Amino acid sequence: MTVLPESLIEIREHHEPDYKPMVDYQSWRVALMNYTADLLPEKINRVQKHTETDEVFVLMKGRCILFIGEGEESVTKIHAVDMELYKLYNVKKGVWHSHTFSEDAHVLIVENRDTVVENSPFVPLSESQCGDVVRLTKEIWG
Description:
1 helix, mainly beta
C-alpha cells in the first residue's frame, strides 16, 4: 500500500469515546463523536446551543437520538429525533440540543471552527425535562 504525504491527503480516524475534532480548515471543522457513558439518557441534565453557527450531524453507524429544545433563554419543550443512517441533520444556530448514543454509534459533525465554550452556552434541564429525555428514549428505542 502506498502511503501518500499529508501535503496531499489527510487520513484520520477516531475509535475512542466522545468528541474529537479531526480536520480544521479555514472557517470549518469536521469532528467525530462516539458513544460516551456521559450521554446516557439518565445522565443528560443540560443542553447546549451555538450562538454563532448551525451544527450538522450525520449518523454513520449505530443509533443516535438528537434532543432538540424549544425556547430562547431556557428550554420550554423537548423533542426527540431518532437519527437515520447517512441523513444530514442541521441543528440551527441558537437551538438547544443534546444527544444520546448506542454503544456502537459513530456520528460525523460539521461546525464552524470557532465553535467554542464562549459561544456555546449550556442550560440545565428541570427534573421533569430530564424525565422527558429518559421517557422519549424509551419510547423510541424500547
